[in-house]
Amino acid sequence: MEDLTLSIYLVLTPNVLMLDYAGPAEALRMARDMGAPIALHTCGPQAQISTSLSTSLSGLEPLPAQLPPRSLVLVVGNSNEVVDYATEAARTVVQWLKTAPQTDTRLASICSGALLLAQAGCLDGRHCTTHHTLITDLQACAPTAQVVTDRIFVDDGRVLTSAGITTGIDLALYIVEQAAGPELAARVARRLVMYQRRGAHDPQMSPWLAHRNHMHPAVHRAQDAVAREPERGWTLEELAEVACVSPRHLSRLFAQHTGISVVAYQQQLRIARAQEMLTHNPTLSQERLAQACGFASARDFRRVWQRCSGPASARSRGSAQ
Q1: pLDDT in tens, 168-204
Q2: What is the pTM of this model?
Q3: Which of 6, 129, 184, 208 is most buried, by the most CB atoms less than 10 A from its CB?
Q4: In 3D, which of 131, 159, 132 has the Cα closest to residue 145?
């Protein structure tokens, strides 16, 4: 049976920026503990390194000579790039990035870690980003790259790059969603009390995490159920049973804490599922999308799509005509 575990290697260099490391690492660790098929490794050119908080981290694994299949290398940023990236340790990482990744290895960076990817030639010809104060430096390191200045993170297929500091958590949640699905990513975000997750190509939150910036457990239970099976024809009574409240009380709580109705919430997730399906197969017909996403008919699908989708999504809908 094929092993679907995603092996993630967080690469740290001396004077690592602690929030660049701890925030994403905790998000990934929580996802792993919740059942995501993730194996975490923290590695670097030295077993013990200093940090931006004048503390030290020990127990780092050595940089692996060979990466296993289904690996993702996540290069973490530093607090003083001019000094830190002129060290022998940083040069060791750059050389390792040139030789260790396999054909199926994905690369990623947090904040200034993009500069090390650039020095290794990993960003040549790719769309990428970094902290807003380092945009010029990244353009100089990777003159053929398309450096994006207004994104939280950028997904260019094999390479993922995030902007400054806390955006590493956004990137980690995106990785979790790809590895284990949106419902588990939403659970991690709630555990982090980070409901308004930001996306790769849009400043708006993910539809799977929208309307989650509340703390009511009954409403979250109902939302979890809908997110697991948005195509299911949930009745208010069924969701109320899941939420352990009466149908009337759930309807009132849902509107109070999310700002929308139960039906509107389910429709938004069904449209999100349709958009994901179109991304992978733009030739899908409206009838097929309607059936797969739980709509009564293609006409019903079109009506809800037009109400829920913005201009960019409307362009995608043209492929499903």
Answers
A1: 999 999 999 999 988 899 889 888 877 545 555 443 3
A2: 0.70
A3: 129
A4: 159
Are 141 and 119 in contact by the 8 Å Cβ rule? The answer is yes
Say which amino acid occupies 168.
G
Q: Hey, what are 320's tokens? A: 């499903």
Q: Report the C-alpha gap between 88 and 94 in whole angstroms.
A: 10
* Amino acid identity for residue 257 in this structure: H
State how far the Cα of 116 lies from the Cα of 285, in Å rounded to an integer.
Answer: 44
pLDDT 10s digits, 67-102: 999 999 999 999 899 999 999 999 999 999 999 999
Average pLDDT of 136-156?
Answer: 92
Task: Give the chain's domains with CATH numbers.
Answer: 6-186 (3.40.50.880), 211-321 (1.10.10.60)
Question: Which residue matches tokens 């790809």?
Answer: 178
Calculate the alpha carbon distances from 136 to 74, 130, 144, 152, 164 in Å: 22, 10, 13, 17, 14
Q: Quick one: average pLDDT of 251-257? A: 95
Which pLDDT does position 8 carry in this prediction?
98
SS3 content of the chain, % helix, strand, coil (to 5): 50, 15, 40
Taking Cα atoms as reference points, which of 211, 132, 210, 123 lies closest to residue 167?
Answer: 132
Residue type, 209: L
Which DSSP category does 134 fall into?
G
